[in-house]
Specification:
Chain A is an alpha/beta fold. Chain A is 34% helix and 16% strand. Chain B folds into 4 domains: 191 residues, Pyruvate-ferredoxin oxidoreductase, PFOR, domain III (Pyruvate-ferredoxin Oxidoreductase, domain 3, 3-Layer(aba) Sandwich); 167 residues, 3-Layer(aba) Sandwich (Rossmann fold), CATH 3.40.50.970; 74 residues, no CATH class; 112 residues, Rossmann fold (3-Layer(aba) Sandwich), CATH 3.40.50. Chain B is built from 20 helices and 22 strands. In chain B, a hairpin with a 5-residue loop joins strand 11 and strand 12. The chains are: A alpha/beta, B alpha/beta. Strand 2 of chain A pairs parallel with strand 16 of chain B, so a sheet runs across the interface. The complex binds thiamine diphosphate and iron/sulfur cluster.
């Protein structure tokens, strides 16, 4: 049996009250629920406050470059599809510098769980506007208010053919954990966008602000995450931010489509030099 | 490791005069993009190869699909050759422009076939003994076979006659090419067209104009491009994951591997850009695959950040870089050696890297195998640096010896070795700087591949003393590595005042130059660098000491190799640069002339 302590390496040093604690806790809970061996879990992080997560978590990890979690995680997953590969990015990491990679990993439907910790600010670099910062918000980089219209990760994901699109709130850890757990079980790409306060650099989007603005889709009468039209409607609500499992569909994953045999991971292939077979290939050049 | 490259002794010296056209000749096919120049050249090269000859091809193509001038040269010889000569013996031109463009290259007793509207024989003061034949390929193809496309096979048949080749060689290749894809009828029609061309050539040329080729028994030769040889090297070395973004002139590596990797249990992935290509290669390698990417200059620039990550997180990675003309988008279909320092000094921070530069197709294979072993052993990025000239052109070489390929994975532990480990340290500080490696899913091997400065277990650590120790650990990995590298090779005369230094595909022209100089009683030697980094300073220093006049030959503007030598060998002898930044690779003459001039 696994307990949260099985995945705990070190106490995080994020600011007191940071939403990242909720994400850290939810990820552990999901791992407990699925009883994943720490060795079978790989956490790939981007650069930002969120990027420290795999320094604190006990599992294999890859802390790479700003915005590049997706290709790294894809490489890992394809080479060893038996691994549970979870990537964690910030809103800058995922929706700005890594936006291209995000959409391409998603459209390929690579079997990754992508947790985007959206604090609507560049936190580690001390508070500049991010692609999800509200229009008009004053930040370090926008002293007279942001002139950029924000984008919304789950909406992009829905437009780009995402097969599992969810949004959680780091103030509701149990709910977030259940979304992550479902995302990990999904055979394909799972996006879990997380509304997550940065208590130091974003005084506007606080826990209370989110509580006032979120709407749980599971509480909407007749809502089905299998209905795309309803998902669009929920994401386009001008007043409320939809949370919960917004959309889900079944589609073959990239691993299933491109790997010769998922049961024979590339990572454990015997690389023995097959001299006769290579010789035959060489004959083609005669 | 196998040693596949031919030894310098294998170079048989023959003077220019001895090498009459029968033993050495070049055929150029020229026309417009869309004329089938590439097809015709490739088939001719294969026919001549099967005739038992050594082959070097060279293509000069525009970067569009149709309409602009292209040409393809096939040089064939009974002797071992590595590059083109200065002359063309037979020109097959699909238009008159091609004649005007290439007339100066045509040998004095050369022969020209031209399918040009309004073709007239040049004035006698220009022909200088060359013969010109109007050969209405298109019209004949239309009349006889209903389609212009048969002009290429008709031309090949004609060349078969002029070179007095066994007609069945061409028939065989036609059938190999068309039977599976297009069926018997297409084969039959093409063989007929080849015969027609053969007979037509007999009609229009005099017996004295023929260039009958002596035949040599095929001694285990293959005809292969550098890009294909790199693909084959990767396959043999156990590369099972390949991620790349399309770019000329590197794409053939991928296009070749894509047909074979799945059959060997691997995967080829087209990424959204080169940032993804290298990052994905690193992810795959971290998870245990032998992984590779390929690119050219613009992609290499995009890979620089991840290159540094490979250095910091100590992840093995193989990057094949086939150079083209920069800067920026430059000239995508022209060869160049302008990206050397990019990999040696490029990216942020300091970290060990290895840059290999094959000079023959055999070395493309050999050094690719070696690149994977070096990447695993030293847990760092390894670059295989070639050029379009090497990558896309075909050369004959001895068939590769796969039985000599060894797969050495360095300090990658086994699951068994890890079982007894209680306190695994992925970045353990060791005497040689190289640390043990575990793979995700392995018990007791949990660690973080960390891009931030880290402690021995891979976790972030900003302690100044740790930083110093980690920096020293990484940087000393290559201190003792030199026996593993491919040492420079000395070609040419035993003792000589003139010394050439170069790398990569300039080898062919330099060796031709060495030979031409020898015929003029100017003995010279050539130091071919095969590992550019870590720099083989001891060997270069020794070579400099033994030579009086040094010429560093490079296909770039600013002499990147000379700059590198000066930065690594101090004090350094005076270096003369022979540079070429034109759109065509060196001709031997361009190397010989400056040497002769300097001795006047
Ligand atoms: C290529 C590159 N550019 C810039 C940076 C500097 N940088 C570090 S973190 C960061 C933004 C972080 O914002 P976000 O991804 O939202 O993460 P958060 O800190 O909010 O968790 C930036 C710009 C970098 N590390 N790499
Ligand atoms: S700066 Fe913001 S995001 Fe970073 S740790 Fe502090 S509260 Fe969290």
């Amino acid at each position: 049996m696994k307990v949260k302590a099985s995945y705990h390496r070190l106490d995080p040093t994020w600011c007191n009250g940071c939403g990242l604690f909720g994400v850290f806790d939810a990820l552990k809970r999901a791992a407990v629920a699925l009883a994943i061996e720490p060795e079978e879990l790989v956490i790939v992080t981007g650069i930002g406050c969120h990027g420290r997560l795999n320094n604190y978590f006990r599992a294999y990890g890859f802390h790479g470059l700003h915005g590049r979690t997706m290709p790294v995680a894809t490489g890992i997953k394809l080479v060893n599809p038996g691994l549970q590969v979870v990537a964690v990015s910030g809103d800058g990491d995922a929706y700005s510098i890594g936006l291209g990679h995000f959409l391409h990993a998603l459209r390929k439907n690579v079997g990754l769980t992508y947790i985007v910790v959206d604090n609507r600010i560049y936190a580690l670099t001390q508070g500049q506007a991010s692609p999800t910062t509200d229009f008009g918000m004053v930040t370090m980089s926008t002293p007279v208010g942001s002139k950029d219209y924000p984008i919304d990760g789950p909406s992009l994901a829905l437009a780009a053919g995402g097969t599992f699109i969810a949004r959680g709130f780091s103030g509701e850890v149990a709910h977030l954990a259940s979304l992550i757990e479902r995302g990990m079980k999904h055979d394909g790409f799972a996006l879990i966008d997380v509304l997550s306060p940065c208590v130091t650099h974003n005084k506007l989007n606080s826990y209370d602000w989110y509580k006032k603005h979120i709407l749980h889709v599971e509480e909407v009468p007749g809502y089905s995450p299998r209905a795309k039209a309803k998902a669009w409607e929920a994401l386009n609500d001008p007043e409320k931010i939809a949370v919960g499992l917004i959309y889900e569909e079944d589609k073959p994953s990239f691993e299933e489509l491109v790997l010769p045999d998922r049961e024979k991971p590339i990572a454990s292939l015997d690389l023995k030099v097959d001299v006769p077979r290579l010789g035959k290939i060489m004959d083609g050049f005669r | 490791m196998l040693s596949n490259w031919p030894t310098p002794e294998a170079l048989e010296w023959t003077s220019q005069d001895e090498r009459s056209m029968i033993k050495d000749l070049a055929v150029m096919i020229a026309g417009k993009a869309g004329d089938g120049v590439l097809f015709t050249g490739n088939v001719l090269a294969k026919v001549l190869k099967r005739h038992g000859w050594e082959i070097v091809t060279s293509r000069d193509f525009p970067s569009n699909i149709r309409g602009e001038s292209t040409c393809y040269t096939v040089r064939a010889s009974l002797d071992k050759i590595y590059g083109l000569s200065d002359q063309v013996n037979i020109l097959l031109a699909f238009d008159c422009e091609a004649i005007l463009a290439h007339l100066p290259e045509i040998a004095a007793n050369g022969i020209v076939f031209c399918d040009g509207q309004g073709m007239t024989t040049p004035p006698p003061e220009q022909t200088l003994g060359r013969t010109f034949h109007r050969f209405s390929l298109r019209a004949l193809a239309r009349e006889q076979f209903g389609q212009e496309i048969f002009k290429n096979v008709i031309a090949l048949g004609a060349l078969s006659y002029v070179l007095d080749l066994d007609a069945s060689l061409l028939d065989g290749i036609i059938s190999e090419m068309f039977l599976k894809r297009k069926g018997e009828e297409v084969v039959r029609k093409n063989v007929q067209a080849a015969r027609f061309g053969y007979d037509k050539a007999r009609e229009i040329t005099a017996e004295t104009e023929r260039h009958p080729l002596a035949k040599k028994a095929d001694d285990d030769q293959v005809l292969i491009s550098g890009n294909e040889a790199i693909g084959l090297g990767a396959l043999a070395a156990g590369c099972r994951y390949f991620a790349a973004y399309p770019i000329c002139p590197a794409t053939e590596i991928w296009q070749w591997l894509v047909h074979y990797l799945p059959g060997f249990g691997g995967a080829v992935v087209q990424t959204e850009d080169e940032l993804a290509a290298l990052n994905m290669t690193l992810g795959a390698s971290f998870a245990g695959a032998r992984a590779m990417t390929s690119t050219s200059g613009p992609g290499a620039s995009l890979m620089m950040e991840a290159f540094s990550l490979a250095g910091m997180a100590e992840i093995p990675a193989v990057i094949a870089h086939v150079q083209r003309m920069g800067p920026a988008t430059g000239m995508p279909t022209k060869s160049q050696q302008g990206d050397v320092l990019q990999w040696i000094f490029g990216s942020h921070g300091e970290f060990p890297r290895i840059v290999l530069a094959p000079g023959t197709v055999g070395e493309c294979f050999e050094l690719t195998v070696r690149a994977f072993n070096l990447a695993d052993k030293y847990q760092c990025p390894v670059i295989i640096l070639t050029e379009l000239d090497m990558g896309q052109n075909f050369r004959t070489t001895r068939a590769f010896d796969f039985s000599g390929v060894r797969i050495e994975r360095g300090k990658l532990l086994s699951t068994g070795e890890l079982l007894g480990t209680a306190d695994f340290k992925r970045y353990e500080i060791t005497a040689d700087g190289i640390s043990p490696r575990s793979l995700p899913s392995w018990k007791n091997g949990v660690h973080l591949a960390e891009s931030l400065e880290h402690d021995e277990k891979g976790y972030r650590d900003e302690d100044p003393l740790n930083r110093r120790r980690m920096m020293e650990k990484r940087m000393r990995k290559l201190d003792q590595a030199s026996p593993d590298f491919c040492a420079p090779q000395v070609w040419g005369c035993q003792k000589a005042e003139v010394g050439f230094i170069g790398f990569g595909s300039t080898l062919g022209a330099i060796l031709e130059a060495v030979e031409q100089l020898r015929a003029k009683s100017v003995p010279s030697r050539f130091l071919q660098l095969r590992t550019l980094w870590p720099f083989p300073a001891a060997e270069v220093r020794a070579f400099l000491a033994e030579s009086r006049d040094i010429f560093v030959v490079e296909h770039n503007f600013s002499g990147e190799l000379a700059t590198l030598i000066k930065s690594q060998v101090s004090p350094c002898a005076e270096l003369n640069n022979i540079l070429n930044y034109s759109t065509l690779p060196f001709t031997p003459r361009e190397i010989v002339e400056p040497v002769l001039r300097s001795r006047r």
